Structure formats: C-alpha cells, structure tokens
Amino acid sequence: MKKSKVFITVIAMVVLLLFFFTQGAIVMMTNMEGLKSILVRATVIWLLVIATIVFYLKRNRDLSLLGFCKPMAKSSKRVFFYIPLIVIAISHFMCGIDTNKGASFIFANLIFTLAIGFAEEIYFRGIICRIWIDESVKKAVVVSSTLFAICHLMNVMGGAGITETILQICFAFLYGIVISFVFIIGKSIWSCIAVHTLHDFCSFISIDGSSQMNVILGVIQFVILLCYATYLSKQLPYDNQDV
Q1: Domain total for the chain?
Q2: Which of 18, 25, 87, 196 could be a cystine partner for 117, CB 3.0 to 4.6 Å?
Q3: What's the rounded mean pLDDT across residues 77-103?
C-alpha cells in the first residue's frame, strides 16, 4: 500500500514538473517577454489543470477526491477566517502596485496565478497530501510541504538567484505546512486555491522594494506564518481520526 502511495506521489511530481518545466522552457527558448510570456505560461499550466480534472472525472466521476467539495462547517472559524494568509498576501503592496503596465498586465497575472493556484493545490494538497493522510496527518503535511518547497527550485530557471531561491524554498515549506493544515481542517481545496492565488497575484503585481525592505517584509511574513502554523496545529484532528 505504501509503495502505491510513493508511486502516485512520484508520478504526480513528474507530471507537474514536466508542465512547469515546459512553460518555462518555451519562454526562455523563444526569448518571450511581457504580456505574451505571461499568457503563454498561463496557457500551459491551465492545460495541466484541465487534463487532470478530466482524468479524474473519467476515472472516478467525482472531483471530491481532489478536494473539490464544500468546506466543513465552521472550518473558516477554526482557521481564523484565513486572516493571517490574507495579511501576508496584501503585505506585498508595502511598496505599491505596479499600474504602469496597464490593466492587461494585471488581468494576465490574475489568469496566470489562478492557474498556478489550481495546479499546485490540486497536486500538492488534493493528490499528495490526501493520499498520505491515512498514514498520519504529520506525514501527509511533511511530504506535501517538502515537495511543494522543492518544486520552487524551478525558479532558478526563471533567472532567480541561488540565495533568493533558497529563501523562497524555506518560505514555501512553511507556507505549504500552513496550507496543508487549512486543507485538512476544512477538508476542501477551494479555500487553499483562493489564498494561494491571492498570495501569488499580490506578489506578481506589486512593486519590488529595496533589498532591505524585502528582508523586513520576509521576516514579518515568516513570523506571521510561524505563529499561524502553531495555532492551526492545535486545530488539527488526531492522526487517523476524523480525517
């Protein structure tokens, strides 16, 4: 049984990384920039989302296996109405919003970040986290969050520096833990997609601050995440019970 979980996890990661590698490779090989680059990348990732949903519909005729169901009653209250995650997302606007590129830039990034939100939450929470839950809640959270963090190594292909990428991996690991907690408590992927998309969208359309400002912002976000993770850990069901 455990071997099948490992196999499914590996296949899920290969498929996800293949599409993410493809969207990055197309942009780099064609020297594509600006709005066209964003839309092409979004198209590739939306193809992954649609293909995965169609696959599950044909195989199971039920998307609840991916977490596409109504959140548990009062789960929003138990996770403090996602306020810490919303605060972290909008904190990207400390230096302002990049409006110089026009409404089309903002809309394109919305489409792109929605694709990322759907794809990453389907694979890391809806598939990987879900299949490991019957082993233990702890294992499900650690496995899905670790792989979620490692996936951000792909940012190096986008031109990100090594130090920046390492810091983002650390942040992604903690963020993955928090989102996994939200998924397990609410038993729904919808809220995970919403806050994940909001986070990326605010980040993508915000104005880059100075190095010092980015460090301060990163520390603030990390502290909020750490406190929130501690709070959510106390809201979790016991391993293998009520999950």
Answers
A1: 1
A2: 196
A3: 94
Give the number of other Cβ atoms within 10 Å of residue 215's Cβ: 12
SS3 (DSSP) at 42: helix
Question: Within its chain, how far is the Cα of 5 from the centroid?
Answer: 21
Cα–Cα distance measured from residue 157 to residue 42, given in angstroms and rounded to the nearest whole number: 16
Range of the domain at 143: 2-233
Based on the number of CB atoms within 10 Å of its own CB, is 194 exposed (0-12), middle (13-18) or buried (19 or more)?
middle
One-letter amino acid at 98 equals D
In contact, 23 and 116? CB cutoff 8 Å: no
Q: Tokens standing for 122?
A: 């389907």
Kindly state whether residue 156 falls inside one of the protein's structural domains: yes
Could you tell me if residue 202 is inside a domain?
A: yes
Q: Which position has the higher pLDDT, 39 or 154?
A: 39
Distance CA 215, CA 209 (A): 10
Q: Is residue 240's pLDDT more than 50?
A: no
In the block, which residue shows the tokens 């089309």? 104
pLDDT in tens, 196-214: 999 999 999 999 888 788 8
In a domain, 239, yes or no: no
Contact between residue 192 and residue 182 where contact means Cβ atoms under 8 Å apart = yes
